[in-house]
Structure to design on (194 residues):
């Protein structure tokens, strides 16, 4: 019985040694010269009244998916652009929206198996009906947030984070057609590197 267990243990050890060596090595975060394509589904929860420096009267939840392409200029800095498809949920009929944005990311902390980053973005969104309700069909956006990235394979990463997202049509605080919205976007995504 002991001999069988020893042989089985030896066979398992030899089998593990025969596995591709790269599979035993920790996968690294993106480095200078790489590009990545990210898919990031999110859910947006409105922040009512004043948050940070901006007022927000909008109180409509929204959900969507962001598709981003980033160029890693250095190990710690990446820039890129993205497209967002979203659905706003005011009650009654849903409102569809598309957003185009420019993105900048800085990796603040890099470890062997994970990294922490901060990012900022700005863009333009157009919708099928006014968003938030009572506003306009076109708006400008900016956002900033933080996230964690964990390599799963050599060229595939898991990401999660939270983003502060502001939407406003820039008609001015005194204009009655400027109900801006601030929200916390909670997201989980994946990134392919090439």
């Amino acid at each position: 019985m002991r001999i069988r267990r020893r042989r089985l243990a030896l066979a398992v050890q030899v089998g593990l040694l025969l596995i591709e060596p790269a599979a035993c090595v920790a996968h690294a975060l993106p480095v200078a010269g790489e590009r990545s394509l990210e898919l990031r589904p999110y859910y947006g929860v409105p922040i009512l009244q004043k948050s940070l420096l901006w007022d927000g009267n909008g109180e409509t939840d929204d959900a969507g998916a962001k598709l981003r392409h980033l160029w890693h200029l250095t190990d710690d800095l990446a820039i890129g652009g993205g497209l967002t498809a979203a659905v706003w949920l005011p009650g009654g009929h849903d409102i569809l929206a598309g957003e185009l944005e420019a993105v900048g990311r800085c990796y603040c902390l890099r470890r062997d198996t994970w990294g922490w980053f901060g990012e900022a973005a700005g863009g333009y969104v157009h919708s099928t009906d006014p968003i938030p309700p009572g506003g306009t069909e076109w708006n400008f956006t900016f956002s900033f947030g933080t996230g964690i990235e964990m390599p799963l394979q050599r060229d595939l990463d898991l990401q999660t984070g939270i983003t502060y997202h502001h939407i406003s049509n820039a008609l001015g605080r005194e204009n009655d057609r400027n109900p801006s919205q601030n929200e916390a976007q909670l997201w989980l995504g994946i990134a392919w590197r090439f």
Observations:
- The longest helix spans residues 2-18.
